[in-house]
Design brief:
The protein is of the alpha/beta class and 302 residues long. Helices cover 29% and strands 21% of the residues. The protein is built from nine helices and 13 strands. The strands form two sheets. Strands 10-9-8-7-6-5-4-11-12-13 form a ten-stranded mixed β-sheet. The protein has a three-stranded antiparallel β-sheet with strand order 1-2-3, with no helix packed on it.
């Protein structure tokens, strides 16, 4: 039986109504539902299906290994998350399209759960054939676009024209957002990116200030201040978003500010370790007791 596209989630913030196809959200916060009805899972969970990727971006924080998750295990997690109040799952990596069960997992999540299905990709494997298989089983796609033209090609080592072609192809079947790692190389391209995003029909630009890795220091304080000023002056038509861990100092609207971070988001890496964010080094291994038990453990960890 097809699952409903509308879901209601109870928490300390109120009753949250969400439709995964249209993307509309309504929070009824005039009264707080009984605590025993509150969701035990976060609103959104990202799952790194694999650490494999066929690009080699210098600023990537993902582990350089070939670990990947078992599809049947992931299906069990999806069912558990759905039953415990999650409203969305985001598949990532690595490059999620390299996982052998990628299409099957998207189909399972859309048909066997009420979760909104999204994934983040570098975009170069979004062939017409793959997009056809995903049609109707994905509700939003995030495509990484770090800079435009020569900037992108120097950082990613792939054709920018071909990437734009794949964005247009994806946009025909599903809403598309653009992810941009903001660093010294890409910052100057932000105005051009916002104009291009409008032309491509993107609905969102997600700003990801570069994180520190073993070999790179990440976005420095001076450039972060410049980025904050640019965001405050932004008047483009495509909405801006920023990763939660970088939101401090940026103008944001958060109707769930009264809830904890783990009520909003959690990440599962390709080693089956549950973390508070995808950048955390440590977390809680998910064992046979399931993902919600691991969440309870993580909530009480330092």
């Amino acid at each position: 039986m097809p699952r409903s596209n509308t879901k209601v989630r109870f928490s300390s913030a109120g009753a949250h109504f969400f439709d995964r196809v249209s993307g509309w959200n309504v929070l009824v916060d005039e009264s707080v539902p009984p605590k025993e009805s509150w969701a035990r899972a976060p609103r959104q969970v990202s799952i790194a299906l694999t650490n494999r990727c066929d690009l080699a971006c210098a600023y990537c924080y993902a582990p350089k290994s070939r670990e990947e998750l078992n599809s049947e295990t992931v299906k069990g997690w999806l069912e558990e998350l759905d039953q415990n109040g999650a409203i969305g799952v985001g598949f990532g990596g690595g490059e999620p399209t390299l996982h052998p069960g990628f299409v099957d997992l998207c189909r399972f999540a859309s048909e066997s759960s009420g979760l909104a299905v999204t994934f983040t990709t570098h975009g170069h494997h979004l062939t017409d054939e793959l997009l056809g298989e995903l049609h109707g089983h994905v509700h939003f796609v995030r495509i990484s676009m770090d800079g435009v033209g020569a900037t992108y090609e120097a950082l990613r080592g792939r054709s920018f024209a071909k990437l734009c072609d794949r964005v247009r192809a994806a946009r025909k079947i599903v809403p598309v957002g653009l992810n941009v790692v903001v660093n010294a190389s890409t910052f100057a391209d932000l105005p051009a990116m916002t104009e291009l995003a409008t032309d491509l029909g993107a609905t969102e630009i997600l700003l990801l200030p570069e994180q520190a890795t073993t070999h790179r220091t990440g976005l420095d304080g001076v450039m972060r201040t410049e980025l904050q000023a640019w965001v405050r002056g932004y008047r483009g038509r495509v909405r801006l978003a920023i990763s939660a861990q970088d939101a401090a100092g940026f103008p944001t609207a958060d109707p769930f500010a009264c809830t904890s971070a783990l009520d909003s988001y959690a990440h599962i890496d390709a080693r089956s370790v549950l973390k508070k964010t995808s950048f955390d080094r440590e977390g809680v291994a998910i064992d046979a007791t399931g993902v919600v038990a691991a969440l309870d453990h993580l909530r009480h960890s330092p």
